[in-house]
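#lab-general

N.A. 3:47 PM
ok so I finally got the sequence cleaned up, no stray characters, all 233 residues accounted for. can someone with queue access submit it? mine expired

B.Y. 3:52 PM
send it over

N.A. 3:53 PM
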Amino acid sequence: MPNTTSNPPPGSRWKTVAVWCGGVLTALLVTYITYIAGWNGTPSDSSENSATRSSAHSAPSTSGPRASEPSEGTQAPSPQPAVQYLASLAPIDTSTDVDPAEIVPIGGTTYPHSVQYSCFTFCNDPNGVIEYNLGKKFTRFTVTVGGDDNAEAAAGTGYFAVYLDGTLATQVSVNNGEPKEISVPVTGVLRLRLEVGGSKTPDSPMQAGVNAAGGLSETLPDLVWGSPKLYTG
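B.Y. 4:20 PM
back already:
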């Protein structure tokens, strides 16, 4: 019997091969594009988690105390009180023989911004007085009192008194070359009055003449409030 199986024409066979090759190339191209997209695209969740863990390890801890802050249980240092010289204030009352002095030696130490009571031949007043308005702004008054080391003659005993709003707060006696310290609280005080005098102070020209005629030696005071200071706080 004649063979009824039909063979495809040669042209269709090459067409089938071309289609198959095209499919293979298309599959390879899609695979390549997918690979490139996965390489350059958004990182996977595992990459994000890894980056998050890395940044968490590298971030500085903020739970501990900062370097600029005192640790718990450590107290910050107390602020130091402000201080100024009494001479920076203008006196509201002063006797003739009392004057501000720049630097005065007392007992071998020099004291700047001092107040000095010094007489020539005689004293205009039996005591030297100077008074200041503190304005209730200060908490403490300190001063070193004594005789001027450069005085022509030893001033004998000097008397120093501090009055606060008219009330005597303290009084000391000082021998030449033996200065003393005074420290007085002045919180709420309006007026500060300083008085000073010598043990043998001629307080008039007549008294000075009588002393000279009688051969009595005169001991003129040369007494100093050394570097008086006022504190706040």
